[in-house]
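Subject: Sanity check before I submit

Could someone independently write out the structure tokens for this chain? I want to compare against mine line by line before I put it in a report. The sequence has 239 residues.
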Amino acid sequence: MKALIIDDERLARVELRRLLAPYKEINIVGEAVNADDAVNKISELTPELIFLDIQMPGKSGFELLEELDSVPIVVFTTAYDEYALKAFEYNAMDYLLKPIEPKRLEDTVKKIIERNRKESLQGFESPVLKENDQVFVKDGDRCWFVKLTNVRLFESEGNYVRLYFEENKPLILRTLNYLDERLDGKTFFRANRKHIINLKWIESIEPWLNGGLLVKLKGGNKIEVSRRQAIKFKEMLSL
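---
Independent answer below. Compare away.
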């Protein structure tokens, strides 16, 4: 699994590299010294896992995640424990306090490896889902057998995703990254960090802030397409 260390303190990066050395499943492909550096390194190196400091000069680790359209597995590393609750709002795999204890890191790595194993098995067993495929959705006591072409929007809520179809908005226990890998890219488009839209439900498109786009879906949902994704979006829809 490719990993990127993001921390403004050189000694902290060196120490984390040392602690991770025994785990051959984790391949450290690079380091970043701040949020802007991290955005470039994530785009270039496509890590599946990031070890992310929260307090850094300029933008914080949380602000970095807000800029990403697709977020890798996140393990926060910080000297401050007051950010723990907020960290898990960002769907973090874990939260490590500095100085990092080897046993605590071992537990984290085990969780990462197990999650990766399960998602690999799911990906192997599961073909690409196309618009005419039907899926079973259960939320509490309610169940649906819904054709994907009728789902206009997928919205991330932590470890869950909310589906929008007809007047229904059930939650399923999946991550948006998982669905992004499984859904057919010809019909479903990752608009930003929190949303996947069904292209066939688009009603209108207009320019938006910072080079992005604002897409209105039939049904009333308005979704911002981030600046980075807007470039791909225009390429997909152009002749």
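---
OP: Matches mine. For the report I'm noting this point. The chain has a mean pLDDT of 90.
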